[in-house]
Design a protein that fits this description.
The chain has 89 residues and is an alpha+beta fold. It has a single domain, classed as Potassium Channel Kv1.1, Chain A, CATH 3.30.710. It contains 4 helices and 3 strands. Strand 1 and strand 2 form a beta hairpin. The radius of gyration is 17 Å and the shape is globular. The relative contact order is 0.20.
């Protein structure tokens, strides 16, 4: 660290797994389909091991789908896609 730098100005050495995997198809095991027709349905690939630790609501969603296939879709109709994007991020 240079003498004039503070801890707040130092970038992390590696991005967090959540940022690297956010909205990534690679090894995703859950897909949130968000919105109501006739509006477009937004698709958010996610990783259950990350989202289930984010909140009790996501944990419940992941656990309810765990008995299904390795990858499953979860339809979300109670939220606008733009809002869900912010929540998931």
């Amino acid at each position: 660290m240079a003498p004039n730098e503070t801890v707040a100005h130092i970038q992390p050495s590696a991005p967090s797994p959540g940022l690297v995997l956010f909205n990534s198809e690679e090894q995703s095991d859950i897909v949130f389909l968000v919105g109501n027709e006739p509006d477009p349905i937004w698709r958010f690939p996610a990783h259950s091991f990350i989202v289930e630790n984010a909140s009790p609501v996501f944990k419940s969603i992941v656990e309810s789908g765990r008995n299904q296939e390795n990858q499953f879709n979860k339809r979300i109709t109670c939220c606008k896609p733009e809002i869900f994007h912010v929540i998931l991020r």
